[in-house]
Design goal:
Length: 594
């Protein structure tokens, strides 16, 4: 066998080279070392849902620029916010530390204690402490100039962006009147100011541009012509806002390309938490995070899993869909490493630079959340741990446990806590140990003003023991189904996809048998859909009946179910749809059988 001068056989050397090339191709990575630190453009959205972009499954074709960005870089399918709420996650992004360690676990200033809440929440830090080193402060030794455009929401009065390491701050407006040159949340103004600042930066120094949009936080507002264009969307205003956000992102990316900065710039696009999936003001629910359960303000996947895109030409793989879980606290140590800086100690996030550039997967399989608050979105105070494919949620309100296998059940519909008590106990022990290690603040104890009759997030029995599940309180799991509010309709309508579902959580005071009735309407020629009512571990099938119109509601008794005491979930899951729509639903009732 012929040898090279260094003694390595030529055939063996060729094989090694081929294997190295195959390894790089398999990882989808370029692994090109950076001669200089990259510019960083970080676009953060406000309440953008996991499935709101075309590249994540949205059917509305209103995000072509972001879909293109995904094709030019990496798209993460299991990226997590550090908290299902804004200020807490922003603090994690800025510091690389978990919200529980910062005692900043809710939005600032937080929700007041109400009579409907059984427990008293802990007192949170109302400003990001100045002793915490933020991302722009960490980047300064590498020569970075830093600017923020948009939402800060981490304190004021000496705790604003300029006091926390940013060189430039432009707040803009959280709400604007839609018109020819502006959307409903000041998107174009913020984008224009960011582009101007970027173009002013010298070529021999890196910059960090943090564009923190107010979009698509409520109140929802968008250009009327865009609302008309997307009139068939489940929420036309929201779809129009996505189009505006996408247009602004396209403008910024074009500006980078025109100025010749694209190759030197790492672009990150992310949401601060899950999308708003319940009624909270006009034109809401904003969106559905389906197939994920829940949304903003809760520890189900729809509240914590977020869209995340990254592009750095020649350094990150292009067109790669990445399933490895990552979390918001990883951003700071990763950017420090990419800037050529030693990664700080005492951080909760990981440096993912080797993972992103050469595919070296992080040695981590466990993630934690601590959210000791009742949210405006009906979320309950809880802690959560994800270890591998398993996820445990511990309610601080009533101490119930929920256990899910995210590989087999990403929608978190099959609670396995009762059938897997040993595993649930092991995960709970590990969650409690983590909370102790970060000095997580517990609930402050029972609420002395608690009123058991007050409504919170769970439907409760009336004086006759009957539980009423109203359309306005449904969690919509789908892309077209929507709640159509009063005064016109007060119904779950536009049920034109059999894949769309609706669900409610409620409280059973005592074990017993309940008769389930669906108050449905279905116009002539559209009857016959087979719908499964999933309640507890029971399936009750029924066939949708014809009425004089979709707004002519008739009670249909679908059967009886023996239900245990405690928290229960009911889901309407269509199986067939022979007509134009499944049905409209105004109410579902569960009446105790004496």
């Amino acid at each position: 066998m012929a040898c090279k001068p260094d003694g390595i056989p030529a055939l063996l050397l060729s094989m090694i080279r081929a294997l190295l090339l195959l390894s790089c191709l398999t990882l989808g990575a370029f692994a090109a070392p950076a001669a200089t630190p990259p510019n960083i453009v970080f676009i953060l959205t406000d309440d953008l849902g996991w499935s709101d972009l075309g590249c994540y499954g949205s059917p509305w074709q209103n995000t072509p620029n972001l879909d293109k960005l995904a094709g030019q870089g990496m798209r993460f399918t299991q990226a997590y916010a550090a908290q299902p709420i804004c200020s807490a996650n922003r603090a994690a992004l800025m510091t690389g530390r978990t919200p529980a360690r910062l005692n900043l676990t809710d939005f600032i200033p937080g929700r007041p204690v109400l009579p409907s809440q059984k427990m008293i929440r802990p007192q949170i830090t109302l400003d990001l402490p100045l002793e915490e080193q933020t991302l722009p402060e960490r980047l300064k030794p590498a020569g970075y100039a830093s600017a923020i455009f948009g939402k800060w929401h981490l304190g004021g009065g000496g705790h604003g962006p300029l006091e926390q390491g940013f060189d430039h701050y432009y707040a803009g407006k959280a709400g604007t009147t839609p018109g020819a040159t502006e959307g409903g949340k000041g998107e174009y103004d913020l984008t224009a100011k960011a582009i101007t600042w970027i173009n002013e930066q010298p070529r021999d120094k890196p910059f960090f541009c943090y564009l923190a949009h107010h979009t698509p936080h409520i109140p929802l507002a968008a250009k009327p012509e865009l609302e008309e264009r997307y009139s068939k969307a489940s929420n036309p205003t929201y779809a129009a806002m996505m189009a505006t956000l996408d247009d602004c992102t396209g403008q910024l990316l074009t500006a980078l390309e025109t100025s010749g900065r694209s190759a030197d710039t790492l672009v990150i696009f992310m949401s601060d938490n899950g999308g708003l999936s319940i009624v909270e003001g006009i034109r809401t629910p904003s969106t559905s995070n389906a197939p994920l359960r829940g949304g903003k303000g809760c520890l189900y996947e729809g509240g914590t899993r977020v869209p995340c895109l990254m592009r750095w030409p020649g350094h990150l793989p292009a067109g790669k869909t990445e399933t490895t879980p990552i979390i918001a606290t990883d951003l700071l140590p990763t950017l420090m490493a990419m800037a050529g800086l030693p990664v700080a100690e005492n951080l909760d996030g990981l440096d993912l630079s080797a993972f992103l550039t050469v595919g070296r997967r992080p040695a981590r399989d466990t993630f934690y959340w601590h959210y000791p608050h009742y949210s405006n979105q009906k979320g309950f105070p809880a802690g959560s741990i994800r270890q591998g494919d398993w996820k445990l949620i511990e309610s601080y309100d009533d101490q119930h446990l929920e256990l899910y296998n995210l590989r087999d059940d990403p929608s978190e519909t099959q609670d396995l806590a009762r059938t897997q008590p040993v595993l649930a106990g092991q995960l709970l022990t590990k969650l409690n140990a983590w909370k102790k290690s970060v000095n997580a603040q517990p609930m402050q104890g029972p609420n002395p003003a608690y009123d058991p009759q007050a409504t919170w997030n769970l439907a409760k029995p009336d004086q006759q023991g009957r539980i009423q599940l109203h359309a306005s309180n449904a969690e919509v799991l789908g892309t077209i189904l929507r709640y159509e509010p009063n005064p016109k309709k007060n119904t779950l309508g536009y049920w034109v996809r059999k894949e769309d579902q609706a669900a409610w959580d409620f409280q059973i005071p005592a074990a017993g048998r309940y008769q389930v009735t669906v108050h449905q309407g279905c116009g002539p020629g559209n009857a016959g859909s087979l719908v499964h009512v999933l309640v507890g571990n029971i399936t009750l099938p029924f066939t949708v009946q014809e009425t004089t119109g979709f707004q002519d509601f008739r009670p249909v008794v679908v059967g009886g179910a023996d239900l245990p005491a405690g928290r229960t979930r009911l889901t309407l899951a269509p199986q067939t749809k022979p007509g134009a729509a499944v049905m409209d639903v105004r109410l579902v009732t569960l009446e105790p059988v004496k």
